[in-house]
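Exercise 7b. Backbone tokens:
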């Protein structure tokens, strides 16, 4: 990571800043949801709270990572080659968040799609693959430590995990679009 700082640490900083904006939006949406829909089922409220807590943990780890690289190790290029623990943790936290969201939307697909268990099983298998490979990548990064080794040592695991998560997202989106169009009520605009 010590190569071109603009490409590495600069991109990391911009990513964390954009993530912080997203976190602010998530916090506002959580507040609005909780104040406007206090009688929603407990599992939906639990899902919203758990996602906010995990997102808070994720942004905290991201801030720590940026602080470590840009403040604690300012002008220490060799330190940029090593992975900091908070960077490693964000990977598995993201995978857990993804699984929770996939399960929430899989339930919606299940209810709208006539309780099709095969479709839900496919979505959940993809989501579990995403989680498992997120955990594998996290463990490998903790072991390797050197960021220069990562593209050569974990690219297959990263690709499999992200690919499974993306495929689950596409299946969920396609199903929701199809089922919602099929169930539209016919109200005029």
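Sequence design result:
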């Amino acid at each position: 990571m010590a190569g071109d700082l603009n490409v590495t640490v600069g991109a990391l900083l911009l990513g964390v800043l954009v993530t912080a904006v997203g976190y602010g939006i998530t916090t506002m949406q959580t507040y609005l949801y909780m104040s406007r829909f206090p009688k929603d089922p407990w599992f939906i409220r639990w899902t919203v709270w758990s996602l906010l807590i995990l997102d808070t943990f994720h942004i905290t780890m991201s801030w720590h990572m940026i602080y470590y690289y840009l403040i604690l190790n300012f002008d220490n290029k060799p330190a940029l080659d090593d992975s900091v623990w908070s960077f490693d943790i964000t990977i598995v936290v993201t995978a857990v968040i993804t699984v929770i969201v996939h399960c929430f939307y899989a339930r919606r697909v299940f209810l709208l799609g006539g309780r099709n268990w095969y479709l839900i099983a496919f979505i959940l298998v993809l989501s579990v693959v995403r989680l498992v490979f997120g955990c594998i990548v996290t463990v490998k990064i903790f072991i390797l430590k050197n960021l220069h080794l990562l593209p050569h040592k974990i690219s297959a695991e990263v690709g499999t995990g992200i690919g499974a998560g993306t495929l689950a997202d596409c299946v969920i989106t396609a199903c929701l679009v199809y089922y919602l169009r099929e169930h539209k009520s016919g109200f005029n605009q």
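Instructor comment: The chain has a mean pLDDT of 91. Residues 42-72 form the longest helix (31 residues).
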